[in-house]
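Sorry to interrupt, but I need a hand with the structure work. Could you add the entry underneath, on a fresh line?
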Amino acid sequence: MTRTHRRRPHPSPLAIHGADVASRLGFCWSLGFGAALALAGCSGDDGIVTGATFSGTGTETGTTADTDGTETASTSTGMTTTDGTETDDPATATVSTTEDTTTDPTTTTTDPTATTTDPTATTEDTTTTTTGEVDSELCLHLGGMVGVGELNTNFVGKVLVDERINGYFLNSEVDGANLINCLNEQIGEAVGCAAVMYTCTDMKSAHLGMGISTLDFGDLAEDYGSALADHQETYVELSDDDATAILTVLGGMAGDIVEDPNNDQTVYQRVGRKPAYSSMVGLIGEPDTMIDRIAKDFAINGFFLESDFVRLNTCFTRQLAGLDGPIVYGAEVDPPAVDVDPGVALDNPCAAMKIGHEGLTDPNEGNSPIMYEDFVALLGDLSGAMASAGWSQGDQDAVMAAMAPLCPEIVGDANECPGNAQTILVKKENLALDIPNDTYDGSLASMVCVALNVIDDGINFVELIDELEVGIAHGEVGDLVIKVQSPSGAISTIMSRPGFDELKDDGEGNGGDKSAMKANFPITLRDAGLVDAELMGIGNVVCQDDGLCDYFPNPGAGEGTNFGDFIGEASNGAWQICFGDAEPGGMGYVDEVSLVISKVKFAP
């Protein structure tokens, strides 16, 4: 059977239930409901304005604050004692019965039809659960847990269309269903709905690192107040005092939620949050906005001829606001309204930078791909728009610094971006390293090698071997062979017995130029050299007498072609520069070796 209880007359809902909730959480908000919510702007001792609460992770907490500032996870209904019996203590009892008060669970039912949530009903009955708990008056005024669910669903709907704060929520990683479930538990427990317990994450943990500001918190409180005002239109027993009591419950949690009390810890907060970004990005025809500047910029506007500029505004806004704000670029959801994040959807998110820019060409520049200069032009338009919007130089610099790393994802050749390329010189000198006479047989083992070590600095692909410079003293240049081996083991023959047309790279046969070499007249070997290395030695002393010191490689019968053989090789590790002597007679030594390498971060 259903056991009902008739409540005794009482001063008002707030006098018993609302005051009980307020006394446990502390009262801060001075709020009025109806046509609008009036925010009195009160604050706690720490200066943080308190109000409602939210979590971008979809979690809520049930901890509350007592008037002495301590927290408690318990929530008294003010209806029954812990053993299920009733009391006349006004702090814990609000009902009396004219019927049999036995708590025999076998005679108690939880039939949901036994309790009405009809807001027009004038009877004031409650339903006893099998545990002896009953819904509080405040819970009943909300419409029980059904009404709590309706209230929170309406509230979340308001938040999703509130551009001031919806950046925390319009991300696909947010579990909206879990958010509402946690809110239902939180509010249900706080207002004394029977047998409701909050089981989600505590407030501090749920909001840690989100950077929620006082403004964010206040805007959310406004949305909850608006949802309560809507709720009053359906649940007419819900008074302004009831609504104030509920806001007070949520307001007590500000200290655990707000991390940016002065609204100034991030660019996102300082410039005005998501609405400020959207306004700065703008559209075509909105003077001095980013998109309008891009449309007028001949250097890059060809890349945007096929663009959906409404979608472009949404994606630029989300990208920039996500640099140090709550928005997650690429995690778009279906818009909750036509004018909220238009042009994107859960199955049509903003494109990842690399994918979104691959294959784009500029018809204004002969269909050239995106180059670093184009990226610089884009950032220039962004900088101009931020300046026109009145953003401080410090905030502009911070945004530009955050955008710079995107260059490799946008530019066709990512190695053009700053920091992705460098040229190094590795050198050894004063070696006096003898070249074994007449031992060369085509192998590195028959040569003497100098190891040049290149460190691993994260930029480790060979874009070009710019040059090899060697200082050698030797009696006959036609005896000499020079090979280079990369750290991976790839070998290229750079010079092979000038003046001798060998059939095999085996050191056999006699011939070659008889010119000498001096260590203090080094020669340079590079792919863009002026003279063929096979023609070296038309004077008595190479370089000194003929003035020819700059040569391009010629492998003769040896392996390899030129320094281009090493493009794309790993640059880090030991490079071996090896010298062989294939004929008797002339002898010599290596005094100096240097290698200039242009390196890039990404494989060329």
